[in-house]
Amino acid sequence: MSEPFLIGDTMTGGYGKGPDILHDCTIAVNPGEIAVIVGPNGAGKSTAMKAVFGMLDVRSGSVRLDGEDITKLSPQARVVKGMGFVPQTNNIFTSMTVEENLEMGAFIRTDDFSDTLEQVYHLFPILKDKRYQAAGELSGGQRQQVAVGRALMTQPKVLMLDEPTAGVSPIVMDELFDRIIEVSRTGLPILMVEQNAKQALEIADKGYVLVQGANAYTGTGKELLADPEVRKSFLGG
Amino acid sequence: MSEMMKNTALFALVAALILITGFYQSWNSAIFILNMGLISAVMAIGVNLQWGFAGLFNVGIMGFVALGGLAVVLIAEVPTPGAWTSGGVGVIMALILGAMTIVAATVLNKMMQPGRSRTLIMLAILIGGFFLFRAVFDPAVSGIEKINPAAQGNIGGLGLPVLLAWPAGGLLAAGAAWLIGKTALGLRSDYLAIATLGIAEIIIAVMKNEDWLARGVKNVIGLPRPLPNEIDLQNDPGFVESAASLGLDPVTASTLYVKLGYSVLFTVVLLVLLWMAQMALKSPWGRMMRAIRDNEVAARAMGKDVTKRHLQIFVLGSAICGVAGAMMTTLDGQLTPGTYQPLRFTFLIWVMVIVGGSGNNFGAVLGAMLIWFLWVQVEPMGLFFMELITSGMADDSDLKKHLIDSAAHMRLLTMGVILLLVLRFSPRGLIPEK
Amino acid sequence: MVDFLNALVALSNFVLIPAIAYGSQLALGALGVTLIYGILRFSNFAHGDTMAFGAMITVLITWWMQSVGINLGPLPTALLALPFGILGCMALVLFTDRVVYKFYREQKAKPVILVIVSMGVMFIMNGLVRFIIGPGDQKFADGERFLISAREFKQLTGLREGLAIKTTQCLTVVVAIVCVTLLFWFLNKTRTGKSMRAYSDNEDLALLSGINPERVVMYTWLIVATLATVAGVLYGLDKTFKPFIYFQLLLPIFASAIVGGLGNPLGAIAGGFVIAFSEVTVTYAWKKVLKYLLPENLEPSSLVQLLSTDYKFAVSFVILLIVLLFKPTGLFKGKSV
């Protein structure tokens, strides 16, 4: 099996001088696929993603992007390397317009980004209608679209979403998942942390079930959904 | 033990500095430094209570100090004959009317639903109340100010012993602090800073302009003193005799006697407050305060009423500053509102607390004495320094003249540099919090 | 009708025009405070003395220009010296940031620590200004004093009340409008300006987007130095240059920034005018205006002055308290409490 596009390999680490939260945890995304991290509350799902993004001290193990070791890079440097990250909260500039949010997403680009802007508007048509409105005035689902759009503006090689559907209604959630699949169809690998394990695994090519900061089950989305152990413990039967 | 030694050495150093001043300059200035140092130490304890214990940022110390000074006039000055009949009652009436207006507006604000009618009625009450207040207040004030304007023209004091004014000064300052605390505490820390900065300016403005209160910028001089007059001592044969036996001439002996008398009084107050502050620090109340300071969210989650505790300690600390202000005006024997400068009375106290060690009462006292010494001595030192630099220049050079004239402004510069250096390299101060 | 016109002229002369000029000065000062608050996240107590420093450099250059005979004809020479004052002030604040504030930024110190640090900076700047130029009043205004004097206006219109517009008042308003326009253009249209707003809005996300915080901070200081110097010079031209006055301006400036909503540039401008108009109207003796408007038998006997001018600080303070009590985020939505 060839090397995945992005891999956090047997990562162990925690915040600052605090205790280890992750224990030999491995997370990977293959080109063109959607990988989903699920697990119970406090299992270290978001922590694992933050470790991949460099917001956490990884004490052993490594993070590799397209074969290159990026374990020592700061989150900002990883953005430059082509990682797009959408935090769970505070992921938009509320006082700025939708279009300005997207422009800020493209801040590190020195070339003309109007094509990317059109692509984002094409993916999220509602944003085009609201381009001159302050992002803080939008609804929860629309805000998430702005957040994802902002991350797409750098033309990342991999997109990381931290609980994109947290706190939105089920209808909006379905719509967001549709959009994420659409983004994925453009060929962009996506790594995503999700609270709604069932729906997430349904769209996932690969799933990681974490328990207490360690890999408990790993497999394709279908395998995990079919696994009786996983069903019983995490998917409510 | 070594910590004890270090602290003792630091205090000994300050004592030595004052003694050196006595030997090489004059004992008069040495005791002056000591007295003002003691008063500053009291202020520093008050500020340390607010900042060190509770993390409250008060930049209105000057106002509370000035209120203490006002209390001395109101309590101890001889009553102005006829002031109460010709306007005093009117002034009190007017102030009560003013207070009632505000109370009425507050009650209304709580009782009525928000809306246009509430705003209109509120405005009507406030504007009507203001004109009513002015209608009663203005004639009363001009009545008072007409009485013997050259020497009095103010409401006068109660003629009570001046020492009573010290706690009264504390009470006055506490009242003002309560008003400010009620509005600005519970908001972010910068807002308290700005609100206190404002109240201090306003207190000074009131004291400068309300001549009926304490003669404004015309100053009140010759306030009663807790200690005998120098002249009386010099005319007392017994005193002259005992002075002579110590080898001192009566004039020097009498000034030293009075000044040292103040030193004793101030030391007593300082020790009492220091003891109380230490007890408070060690008490469960003090522990709770520091717990709140270190983690407000956790303290709130444990059911502590943080805003109320903050109000409590803010009022207490300001009251101590008021006491210190009363002590200072007593020492000066006069109230001169024009001399209250925020850089001297607010920000300098801050330098004292931070240099000494915020959160540690002994640190505050040490910082106060040390910084006060520097504040007084930096000027001659600066002058000396400037003369040294300019010694090579021609005597008629403009630059030389300018540099020597400007030496006086070295003070602020030095204090700023000291503050920044301590904050940067020793943020916990000379005697850190335990 | 003539009475009404006279009243209007008196009102403009003594209330509207001074308040507009003063409001512009406050607005420029408050913009500086609010930008520092938005980007560096602390209340800068040294802002008054930054204004004094910039103005001082301008005064010194103005004196030099006057001594060698450079002038702008009817306009004050200080206008020519202003760019040098701005440069001097920029150098000072950048130096201060490098030596003092940067350390605490890297430590992620609490805002209140930064406020205390700014207090130390205030001491030093204040001492520096007094050391260089002395604590007294300094005169540096020249050029034509009036755009239109009261006498000319009376001759021109035949009204009993005169309208005097000082060159400095007019200049204040024009310069303030230019500055504010440029500032808003910069913040809303340029990439750097937008990145400043983004940084102020959401620091973490700005970092994620690749915005360099040190660059943002540097641009902020440069803008603040410009605004502070312009405000300081305009105030000095209009009233007087005296180091201590600038320290005292701190209160109305902070009041303006908070009333408008700390961190919100639009709010700072609105706040400046709210404070200025309140100060002037409350401390103005209205008799002059009222005597034209009211019938003779109702003519007021007193000056109809609500508060003596010495209480102008009290006015900004009371407005500040009211806003803190009822709307702590300010008229325009500022940063949260």
From TrEMBL, chain A:
Keywords noted in UniProt: Amino-acid transport, ATP-binding, Nucleotide-binding, Transport
Positions of the ABC transporter domain: 5-237
Similarity comment: Belongs to the ABC transporter superfamily.
Molecular function via GO: ATP binding; ATP hydrolysis activity; branched-chain amino acid transmembrane transporter activity
Domain of life: Bacteria
Protein's name according to its UniProt entry: ABC transporter ATP-binding protein
Any Pfam family the entry gives: ABC_tran
Biological process (GO), any one: L-amino acid transport
Organism of this sequence: Phaeobacter gallaeciensis
Record-linked Gene3D superfamilies: P-loop containing nucleotide triphosphate hydrolases
